[in-house]
What does this fold into?
Amino acid sequence: MTDSLDVLVICGSLRKGSYNAALARTLPALAPAGLKLRPAPSFEKIPIYNHDIQSSSGFPPEAVAWADAIRSADALIIVSPEYNWSIPGGLKNAIDWVSRMKDQPFKDKPVALQSAAGGILGGSRMQYHLRMSLTSLDVVLFGRPEVIITFAAQKFDEKTLELKDQTAIDLIKQQLAVFEKFIRRLQPKD
Ligand SMILES: Cc1cc2nc3c(=O)[nH]c(=O)nc-3n(C[C@H](O)[C@H](O)[C@H](O)COP(=O)(O)O)c2cc1C
It folds into this structure.
């Protein structure tokens, strides 16, 4: 039996009733046996990036904890909504902080993206902005299949927030299975 891979799941929404957080919680049940998924620490308390803070008091402990979690994982899945056609500010802020660290945590990390949003494009514009931004951090971006959940309110149970759309469920399973192979291809051989 091959060793399982440690995959960190980062959610871009802080909202209690978040569809993306619900999606992130669904992933372990849809993942192949070879992927062990765990949630990333919250970026909620990371202050807004300011180089003066970095110079005077160093990196905030919340940013260090976020970076450590990323560094220790074999791969990442980022599950996020789209805010005003782009990356939610909280998530971008966390990325900006850790991008300034020595031993930059995103470097060479395999990353898959998922999004759920209220509209017809399902957060796809956020995904493309994230692809652009993460490319500057030397991540190894997973391509297809893409997981883009449109009209989220119709796909999750109103009360339990359970993902009930079979097409989306099948697509997620497919993405995670292909992502596992992608990560394994990138693992150092010894
Ligand atoms: C500040 C803000 C900006 C938004 N901009 C977009 C947008 O550009 N595209 C979109 O599809 N939905 C947009 N929405 C609606 C979100 O898709 C919707 O609120 C979604 O439920 C947010 O994800 P969450 O449920 O995981 O928190 C926006 C919502 C907020 C709060």
Summary: Residues 13, 15, 18-20, 81-85, 117-119, 121, 123, 152 surround flavin mononucleotide (CB under 6 Å).
